[in-house]
Structure formats: structure tokens, C-alpha cells
Amino acid sequence: MRDVYLIGIGQTKTTKNAGIRGRYLAADAIEQALESAGLERDRISMLVTGNMMSGMLTQQQQLGALIADVVGLRGIEAATVESACSSGAAAARWAFMGVAGGFHDAAIVCGIERMTHAGREDITAALATAADWELEGCKGESFISLNAKLMKLYMEAYGVTAADFAHFAITAHDNGYTNPNAFLQKQIDFDTYMNSRMLVDPVKLFDAPPVCDGAAAVILACEDVARAAARSGLPLIKVAGSAIGTDSLALAERVDQLQLSGVALSTKRAFAQAGVSKDDIDLFELHDAYTIITSLSLEAAGFAEKGRGVHFGKDGEIALDGKLPISTMGGLKSRGHPVGATGVYQLAETYMQLTGTAGANQVPGAEVALIQNIGGTGATVISHVLMAA
Questions:
Q1: Are residues 189 and 84 located together in one domain of the fold?
Q2: What share of the chain is helix, strand, coil (3-state, %, to 5)?
Q3: Mean pLDDT along residues 360-372
Q4: pLDDT tens for residues 211-259?
Q5: pLDDT attached to residue 333
Q6: Which residue(s) pair with 198 in the sheet?
Q7: pLDDT surpassing 90 at residue 51
Q8: For residue 252, which of 182, 323, 379, 382 sits 20 to 30 Å off, Cα-Cα?
């Protein structure tokens, strides 16, 4: 297996802008990534697109071939990957395997989701397809209601209150405030969090991510291409680990509903591949779609004991200058969660951290990062370890 490097990034600002069609959002991100990498189009032989809902919300499938055509890459290997909210990272995993296996020397990964042109009911129904339809969806469960069940169960099991989750949202919004690509560039305090509108008890407005549109792209390449394209003064960024862990879609079918087994499995596999442990991680870009998922992810990835994840960070450990920074560019809570694009945004943002180009959001001395993108309420979890080489 060949070493794989991340050599270029592109991202659009996450917005509510129904006037821009998805193919053009994707093209914008890809053009940025090509320019960032300093790579000519003829070096690219693969394009993998991550998307969840285009077929449902815009009646458009085959995004891989469509986007390849739009950006002047007609004829190359191109396809779309879907794994619900983890579609972006799944696309990166597929491209990683293509380059690592020697099938391609350079591949573009693009994550794209356009949501805000549709009605709220249509969006809710489309998101609910990430759950088990037979056991959850057809019974009226939504993504919000399923996360509310998890949060309520956690609160009852460990004797915590809604107030204990506030610091996750506050930290994300602090970081998103200085990210020019974030959708919610708005700081919040404890009172704002506590007084926000209840969505489904106990999930409040600031426990959940906003609906938005966006596209991000990264370029993965073999070592020869990466070194030839290396930018002066910046380290090479190696994709040292890439792994997927899965669990049942339905919460009721899991061995332990308060254990994200997919997180534990994919973290363990990615760490083993990269030859690192949790003590080596300088930042953790986790899937903070809901504050309960943040807590459970910190536990399953090994950074907090079971039942203690909700308290991790109350003393500043998750701030940019803390022991384990999370949501460093605002995360899903503030940057936004255009679902199929989220995993690629995370990779692009982490590249910025490891190359020291994150500006006001820079994590001091960041060299090794864990990035995690979750599909559903934990059914598909893709973990990547990036490190400055």
C-alpha cells in the first residue's frame, strides 16, 4: 500500500442560497482545490463525490459523472458515494484506497449538499432515511427525535442536566465566529444556550446543527505527485490512517445505545494504521451534529470515560489552546452541516490546522489530528488520521 497525501483544498462558504445549483458549488470548491495544489487537470484520474440527498431533493443522481463533466474532467473514473451524513468522508475513504492501491496517482474528493431550496418537511423526511425505515422512520422518528432519545437516556443514566452540554455549543460558536466560511458566525453564552427554543425535549436549538448548502473538495495524491506539488514553507500532510466502523442503523438494535461502537471501531483501526494513540492527537474534528453525539464520541474514541464525556472540556480542554481542541473551525454546529459535504469540510479544515494556515482559528503546534464523520446516529463512522510529514 502506497503512502497517501492531502495536497490541496477548496471550500465554499456554507449558506442558505437556493439560487446556486449544486454542480456549480462543487465546481467552485474543486477549482479552489486544484489551484491550492498547483496541479493540472491532466494529473487527475479519479473523482469521488460524497452526497446524501440530491436524488431526493433535486431529482439528480450520477453526480460523479455530472461534476466531472462540469469541471472539465469528462471521461475520468467518477462516481458518487452515499453513507448518509458521513458521505463526504466515505468518498475520501474510497479515493484514499484508489491512490493507496496504486490505481490512481491523484484523485479529487468532493462533498456537496444543497438543502435549503426544499421545504422543511421534505428535508426532515430525506434526513430520516439515514435511520432504519422499518424500525424507526415509518414510525415517525426524525433525526432530532432519535438524538433526543439518546440525550434523555444519557441524562437519566448519568444524572446530568441540559446545562452540562452547553460548553460544546458555546465552544463551537466561539470558533465559528472567526471562520469566514461558517454559516453561523455568532457567539453564544450559557444563557443563550439554555433559553434557546426546544426542538424535541431535551434537544434545544443550539444542540442541533443548522440546515445549509455547501461544497468542499480535497485532492489526495501519491508521494511523487505530492512532493512535486509541495508548496514552499508548508509541510506535506499525510493521510496516515483511514478506517470505517459500523453498527446497526436502529438504536433499539444496538447492544448499548450509549456506546457508539462504530466510533470505537473506526478509531481503533485508524490509530493502528497510523501507528498513533490518543495521546498523540493534537486536535479532534469530531462529528458534533448534536451535543449528545459530541459527548458519546469523546467517550467511544477513548478521550473520556463512559458517562464523563459530557464533562470533558468544562475546564477549557476543548478550546483552541486546550488539551484536545474540537470543532476548531466551528464544527457542524457553527460552520454548518451540509450533510454530504461535512466530512470533506472537516478534512479541508484539518489540512489548514496542520499546515499552520488556519488564521485566527489556529491550534498551536498541531501536527497530528483525528477526523471523524458519522452517518445516522452512529451506524457508519469514518475516521481519518492526518499528520504533518
A1: no
A2: 40, 20, 40
A3: 98
A4: 999 999 999 999 999 999 988 889 999 999 999 999 999 999 999 999 9
A5: 97
A6: 204
A7: yes
A8: 382
Report residue 87 as a C-alpha cell.
458521505
Residue 194 inside a domain? The answer is yes
Residue-level pLDDT at 37: 96
Q: What is the average per-residue pLDDT within 270-284?
A: 98
Residue 167: which residues within 8 A CB-CB, separation 6 or more? 313, 314, 318
104 catalytic residue (yes or no): no
Of the residues 104, 167, 287, 337, only one is catalytic, namely 337
Residue 167 known to be catalytic: no
Find the domain containing 194 and state its range.
130-207+240-388
Report which residue type is found at 385.
V
* End-of-domain residue from the set 195, 229, 263: 229
Among residues 94, 91, 104, 98, which one has the least CA distance to residue 49?
91
Q: Is pLDDT above 80 for 18?
A: no
* pLDDT band per the 50, 70, 90 thresholds, residue 263: very high
Whole-number mean pLDDT of the chain? 97
Catalytic pick among 85, 110, 212, 222: 85
Total domains present in the chain: 2
Nearest CA to 344 among 5, 2, 6, 4?
6
135 in helix, strand or coil?
Answer: coil
Which residues, other chains included, contact 93 with Cβ-Cβ below 8 Å and sequence gap of 6+? 242, 244, 382, 384
Does residue 19 carry a pLDDT above 90?
A: no
Q: Look at phi and psi of residue 177 and say left if phi exceeds 0, alpha if psi is from -120 to 50, else beta.
A: alpha
CA atoms within 13 A on the CB side of 65: 4
